[in-house]
Each structure stands twice: as structure tokens, then as C-alpha cells.
Design goal:
The structure is a single chain. The chain is mainly α and 170 residues long. The protein has a single domain, classed as Cytochrome c-like domain (Cytochrome Bc1 Complex, Chain D, domain 2, Orthogonal Bundle), CATH 1.10.760. The chain is built from eight helices and no strands.
Length: 170
């Protein structure tokens, strides 16, 4: 085979391709996703409670109690304060006592709104630890809650909307 019959080397094309790649402006990087940073108690609320009680404590009040502007009223009664921790879904939560106390404080003092008494104490990890050892698993929760709600409405002027949970008369 003569030197003229050989195929042409591709070396001449390769430097051109590299030069083209170097001169082509790169695609702009996609902006990083903005993920809001939430305080841990709020994030724990969303992960453990928000699926049923809603992002801001508003749910289908007939199926799951609304929390927004209502839950704080329960702190007006000693039995109501305990009730919030002793609810089975709360008492049996996988969260530590410290995490659960922080979530309860977020729910009551952030979501609870105007219903929270001005002198209400925050939950402590020790209080949560003691109360969650006595879950309300041998009572009718609807009846138990109903008695508390009627007392709150009668004595403290709590909103009648507290009655909506478990009430099919709407």
C-alpha cells in the first residue's frame, strides 16, 4: 500500500473537537433547590403529627381534631394538660421525652393561638416522661375528650368548634 492510499489520521479532527468544546460556554448550573430550614420541633411536628393534623394544625375537624387556636384551651385544666400527653398516639410516639416536650410546646404555644392561658407553663421532658407512662388506652377517647371540651366551653368560653371532632351532627 502506498503512503497516499492510507486512511487519513483523525488527529486533525480531534484538536478541532477539543477546541470547540473549550470555546462552547458551559450550561449554567441549575440553581440549588431551596429547602427551608425548620426548627427541629416544627420539623418533628410535620413528620409525626402534620400528616393528620395538617401543616398548620388545620385538618378535617370531624375526623381529626383541629389544633389551631383550639389546643391551647386544654392547658386551662390540669386534666386537659395531661390529656394531650397521654393520648396513645402521643404517649407511644418514638420521639424521646425531650423531643416530644419540644413538639408539644410548639403545638400548644405556636399553633394553639389565643386559647393558651397567659400563665401556662411549658412542658418539660420530665413531665412528659411521667405522663406518657400512663397512656389513655383503657377509656373511650371520644367520651373523655367530650367531657373536657364541655368543661372548657362552660367554664372558660372555649369555642364551640372544639365539639366538631367526633360529632357527626354537622
Amino acid at each position: 500500500m502506498s503512503p497516499r492510499a492510507r486512511p487519513r489520521p483523525t488527529r486533525r479532527i480531534l484538536p478541532g473537537a477539543i477546541l470547540c468544546a473549550l470555546l462552547t460556554p458551559p450550561c449554567p448550573a441549575a440553581p440549588p433547590e431551596v429547602i427551608p430550614s425548620l426548627p427541629k420541633p416544627q420539623a418533628d411536628y410535620l413528620l409525626n403529627c402534620g400528616g393528620c393534623h395538617g401543616l398548620n394544625g388545620l385538618s378535617n375537624g370531624r375526623l381529626v381534631p383541629d389544633l389551631q387556636s383550639q389546643i391551647g384551651y386544654f392547658l386551662r385544666l390540669h386534666e386537659g394538660r395531661e390529656y394531650l400527653v397521654r393520648l396513645p398516639n402521643v404517649a407511644f410516639s418514638a420521639m424521646s421525652d425531650e423531643e416530644l416536650a419540644a413538639v408539644l410546646n410548639f403545638i400548644v404555644f405556636q399553633i394553639g393561638g389565643t386559647g393558651v392561658p397567659g400563665d401556662a407553663a411549658r412542658y418539660s421532658a420530665a413531665e412528659v416522661a411521667a405522663l406518657r407512662r400512663r397512656p389513655l388506652n383503657e377509656v373511650s377517647l371520644t367520651e373523655y375528650r367530650g367531657r373536657l371540651v364541655e368543661t372548657l366551653i362552660r367554664r372558660y368560653g372555649a369555642p364551640a368548634g372544639l365539639r366538631s371532632y367526633g360529632n357527626d351532627r354537622h
